[in-house]
Design brief:
The chain is mainly beta. The chain has a single domain, classed as Jelly Rolls (Sandwich). It has two helices and 22 strands. Strands 1, 12, 13, 16, 17, 18, 19 and 20 form an eight-stranded antiparallel sheet that branches. A seven-stranded antiparallel sheet has the order 2-3-4-10-5-8-11, with no helix packed on it. Strands 7-6-9 form a three-stranded antiparallel sheet, with no helix packed on it. The longest helix is centred in the last third of the chain and has 13 residues.
């Protein structure tokens, strides 16, 4: 069974136009979580904590997934996709938050040969999610396979497993993925003699099965490290400082977004 390597408390952070959130992963702890770069836990009962949302901003070199537990997120992107992410829904590349909510945003690093891939978008509604129920737990499968059932987020550039586990006893899972971490967003859980309390995460050893006890809700996320150099500047993640500088040069010149764009998107993005 995998033991806990380290326990991390989510850091209160202010992002976007003034969104209060809790950040578990970020530049401060790479490459421990490779291929994962960032995990944000956002939401509050006070709309002033998040209603300002996120203005248009560039993404390059990463894939992002937003998973909503409560509330809604308004989405818009440079390839013309718009929509609303509601409770229990998932959508890639979010724009801003609007309404009472709680959710998570995960960034998955892209390998060197996929850094400049064309933008793509996928939106899933709650009925598309796959849920497995057992005596001691319920698993919402977002990506990967659990108990022979596959989650709806498939064909990713980096193969990951992403589960939302509601535990009231013992949870057992076998995986060969080398990077495995958990984040507790309700209650608390135990791994061996280690307690992972509310709003804390745990990075596990890179081999063995997962065995977890307790009463709580947590994200279980696994993947294999890319083991590539990282040059990180805001929402742009490349492999070298030269590539990163080129991306920001394109942003300053107004050539960052490729292909035909709706006029209002190009105008707002480059302001």
């Amino acid at each position: 069974m995998r033991k806990v390597r380290t326990i991390i408390e989510g850091r209160p952070t202010l992002e976007g136009a003034g969104v209060k959130l809790r950040r578990l992963l970020g530049p401060f702890n790479i490459p421990l979580f490779d291929p994962f770069l960032l995990l944000d836990h956002f939401g509050s009962e006070n709309p002033e904590d998040y209603v300002k949302g996120f203005p248009w901003h560039p993404h390059r070199g990463i894939e992002t997934v937003t998973y909503m537990i409560q509330g809604e997120v308004e989405h818009g992107d440079s390839i013309g996709n718009t929509g609303i992410i509601r409770s229990g829904d998932i959508q890639w590349m979010p724009k801003r938050y609007n309404g009472s909510m709680m959710g998570f945003q995960l960034w998955v690093n892209l390998p060197r040969n996929k850094k400049m891939t064309d933008p793509r978008y996928r939106g899933l509604i709650a009925k598309d999610l796959v849920t497995v129920q057992k005596n001691d737990y319920e698993v919402v499968i977002i990506a990967g396979t659990f108990d022979t059932r596959r989650g709806p987020v498939q064909d990713l550039f980096v193969d990951v497993e992403y589960f939302d586990v509601h535990l009231s006893g013992e949870f057992f899972y076998s995986t060969k993925k080398r990077t495995a971490f958990l984040y507790v967003y309700d209650g608390s859980i135990m791994i061996g003699d280690s307690e992972i309390p509310f709003q804390h995460g745990a990075l596990l050893e890179d081999k063995g099965d997962l065995q977890i006890q307790g009463k709580g809700k947590f994200l279980c996320i696994t993947g294999d490290p890319l083991m590539e150099p990282i040059a990180w500047g805001g929402p742009i993640v490349m492999n070298t400082q030269e590539e990163l500088q080129k991306a920001f040069d394109e942003l300053n010149k107004g050539t960052f977004l490729k292909g035909p764009l709706p006029a209002h998107v190009a105008k707002e993005f480059y302001q």
